[in-house]
Amino acid sequence: MSVRKWLLSAAVVTAASLAMPGIASADWFITPFVGWNAGGSADVNGSDGSTRASEFEHKADYGVSIAGMGKGIIGAEFDFGYSPNFFSTTTDANGFAFSSGNNVATLTGNLIVGAPVGGHGAQIRPYAVGGLGLIRSNVGATGFFDATTANDFGFDVGAGLAGFFTQNIGLRGDVRYFRSFNGSNNGVGLSNFHFWRTSIGVSFKF
User: Fold this and answer.
1) pLDDT tens across 174-192, in order?
2) Cα–Cα distance for residue pair 109/17, rounded to 1 Å
């Protein structure tokens, strides 16, 4: 990863840490989750100068979220997701196929906005979430190029719903859109690598 990307990622982590509510007044949530990739696209350039448009495997991914919410409606979150076999390994009409070792990992620092509703030990919180972070892809294809790892700065944005059926245990589900940035002579722009992730997990509040 370049020094610039390391600095940008460090800035995101620092900003998210500063946005975390104070320890004494915050509710903290740890949510292991499983997810499903959908939509999106990515073009991959080979060593021979040719380009292949990827198709996603649409397999389950998994990860964990650590979030803090104060008494108000604003909180912060660190979200890590990992998608093994992210790209399709099916051979196309030209004999091209991604290797089975391809994967994508995301690490983002996010702002959460959500107003709790309900009471008497039961609470439901619809929320919106968005932030910046790292999108790391590892791809390879026999006869096209060797395994290549890309560390790109990107963002995620989405919405979801969390509900607690006891004081400390509940469920959380959301849908998020991920997209990476790319650099150009005109500055930073959006790359063609993007996808949706739907996930659900068990939340533990403390």
Assistant:
1) 999 999 987 655 667 888 8
2) 9
